Structures are given as structure tokens and as C-alpha cells.
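Changelog note: in this version the structure field was regenerated for every chain. One regenerated record is shown below for reference.
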Amino acid sequence: MILHTEEVGTGEPIVFLHTGLQTGLTDFEYQREFFKDSFQVVLPDLRGHGKSVNNDLSDFFEDAAKDLYNTLEKKEIESVHIVGASLGALVGLFFAKRFPEKVKSLTLSGITPGKPGNWLQMHQEDVEMQTQLLQNEEAVKYFDQLHAADWKQFLYMGRDENWYPFDETKDLAGIHSPILLIAGEGNPNEIKGAISYRSMQNNVHVSIIPFASHLVHSEQPELYSKILNLFLKSIEKSS
């Protein structure tokens, strides 16, 4: 499918891939404003989110990567800087592995390469939180208004303890463009994962941001943006 996208700014294209249950316009808001003066900021709604209406989540990550490829082809965009957080980071990783020629750089946060020892406990806590969300009428009304498709499918998808694609996140094989891993100090699993990626390939840079955890891009937006900008400038200088 072709994803609904919003765009601001001019310059080299940079694609921000939002977290689960957000949209291109409701996530990465600070970064959108920060980068729009020097980049063409592309903000897609991933499948099943916002105005990208699709209720088929049977092979979400594979399909989401293809959706992004089809969307860039439709827009005649040759290659992009990819920035993703959490669910968007997983889509970005799938995309970069399958279409490496499309990726000028890859910035990921909120992912982990290996299954944490307490994964079952973490998963159970997530399911409980999602159950509470579904019981919150105000929240349900908000997400109903935000998404044209059935957003509750993502919660149902997450109830399967094997939903996380550890087979893909275990390495960065085949990605030769510069990679930046950003982790919040409050998430030990993601810090450990970022450092392990650094040991796998020499094209990987790592930044650990204080006073932040899983959603580091929104918890420390200014610091995150400055580090991302430094990374992108270093690529520009070396090209």
C-alpha cells in the first residue's frame, strides 16, 4: 500500500517512523520543527495507523517495510535518512535490511537485539497496561478519532508473547550505511543492546541519554535532536 504522509521543509529527505498507536503528526513533533529548515521531513502513518487504513497485520513488519518502499517509489525519492522509535524503529530496521540501497543513514531507539531474561514478566505487564487502556473510555475515544483503521488490532497483536521480531533485531547484517543507536539511561536492556550492536559492526554509533527511558525522543527531545543532528552532519562531512 501507499502510506499517507505529511511533509514539511526542503533538502535531503529524512523519514521519521512513529511509535505504536501514534501517527506521523502526533509523534516526533519537536524533531519535525527542529529539522524542517534543513531537511525535507517526511512523516508517514504506518499501516493501520492514522490515515493509512489497512486492517491486515498478519505480517506487519514485512508489510510495513514494503509499504514504506512503495511510498518512497511513488514519491520518486531515491534514498533517505531513516529515524524510528520503538515500533517505528523495528519497521526502520526491517526496511534497511531489505532495501539497503534506499538508506542514507539509520537512527534507532527503543529496540533491543536479544530477548531479555525477564521478557515474560515485561510482556505480562504490557498486556495488563493494554487491558487498562481498553477500559478507559476517554483513551478509546481519543484513539478512535486518531486512527481510521481498527487500532485495537495492535493491542491484540501484542498479546502474543512471540510478537517481537528478535530474529531480525539480533543483528544489523547487510546494513552498510551509518547507524546511530540512541538509548535512555533508564532502560538497561536497550543500553545493553545498543552497546552490543556497536561491537558487531564498525558503522554503528551509540548515544546514551540521561533522564530518559524507552521513549527517549519525546522524554529528552532537545538532546535527542542535537545528537541526531550531530550524526547527520558527520555523514555530510564524510560524503
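Spot check on this record: The mean pLDDT is 96. The CA atoms of residues 40 and 69 lie 17 Å apart.
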